[in-house]
Amino acid sequence: MQSQTAGDERAELLAPTAVRPLAVALATVRARPAREDEAASAQEAPRTPPKVIHALAHRALDPPKPAETQTPAPTQTVAATTQTVAAPAAAPEPPSADAAAPVAAAAAPARPEKSAGLSVVANVLDSPVSSAPPSAVKRAPPVNLDLNSSVDWVSLSRAIEEGQGQSLGSGPLALEAAQIVRGKSIAEGAFAEVFRGLLWGQRVAVKQLKTDREGADKESLERELRHETRILAALSHPCILTLIGYTAQPAQIVLEVLDGTVYDLVRKHGTEQCDGGMLGPLIDILSGCAYLHACKPPLLHRDLKPPNVLHDEKLRCKLCDFGTALELKPPPAPQPTEWIGSQLYVAPEVDKGLPYGLPADVFSFGVLAYELYHLKGTGVDFYGDGDLFEGGGLFEGLEVIRAPILKETPELPVRPSACDADPVWELLGECLAFDPGKRPTFAQAAQRMGVVRQAASSTLTTWLGVAKS
């Protein structure tokens, strides 16, 4: 496609439909009169050829995907600022020096690092959390934003500020509260309440942080809101709840709306409708957790439990509530020791105040999976107070699951009747191991459970297009 000379034709070339706002922004940059502080550099450097603008715009919108295994690059100091930012692991190959020099000559200041803190907000269903002071949590630059690119980010950001909207890859989307039509409450806890809502005509879930709870000052609410939205904005996986945006006043997080918790899936729908039965939702959970632990740095959820697993209309399960999630820094940074989570599900090392890492989430999954099999076989779960006649609730769960594991000589709980596959029960036993070093990784657990499901179901084999062995 040949480049056009007119600014409006060039904008049409760059923006068929979906990328039109960015194209308009680029056209605005080209059309904007030079300011006095730009005059000198403009005299020395010729105008950027249209072909370069065309190529750079498409590189900004569709950067190369990073390799599966990367070694983080050292920090790099960006010109015209004293702040350092982490350079992407694999930067795209720049255009030729002759073509890119005029654009690269404009100094691109580093994106200011947002302050962060470990949120102490629990999920909307009353999860107990630590009262320990929040720990600092830093978030790497979004992977789709190449800070080494020769795109003129300064001019582009100015155009965006002049009315073209929020730049792509700039973090969670800030919304105006007036854009949201809020409906009835669908869940409430000690730290937040979730409402049905409409945004731009679409159904959403609106999670509003409570302002009337103890310690809920403006600074702490902003920290909690910033922490959870920054983490969710950086994640992209079909088994993780999707963030749409947030409002600062009031402190709200706007999320995709789902149909219910995994409790509802097992109790109301029955896992027979899932591919592989109970293995379907369990593999969804394992897949989402494996993704979190594969992030750089790895992300500890720290509050895995059935109320934090939701399902959609297609019965796919998704992880939610990242208010207590923590990016695990590599050595020599110390491992966390603060007690955070929910009593039934926390790993023994967390309960004892010892340093913990990724295996702590694996233990929580083991308890979650055991409880779902128990629920399927008995109709009783271990969340809340339970029922006077039917039993269940937290205290029964502590007795059934944790008491055997925490004995002087640890034992496994009694095998649930609904867990009839020996390989699955063996895997759950490893996840519930008292020794963190004996627990599998989420990637290993997902692969092993996937083998069992594939052997029992022809759906995946048919989809793969391979013969069943």
TrEMBL record:
For whether the record's keyword set contains Oxidoreductase, the answer is: no
SUPFAM superfamilies linked: Protein kinase-like (PK-like)
Q: What keywords sit in the KW lines?
A: Kinase, Transferase
- Pfam families for this protein: Pkinase
Q: GO molecular function terms here?
A: ATP binding; protein serine/threonine kinase activity
**The Protein kinase domain covers which part of the protein?**
180-452
The source's superkingdom equals: Eukaryota
User: Where is the region Disordered?
Assistant: 30-51, 84-104
Q: Which PANTHER family match?
A: SERINE/THREONINE-PROTEIN KINASE TNNI3K-RELATED, SERINE_THREONINE-PROTEIN KINASE VIK
* Protein name (record): Dual specificity protein kinase
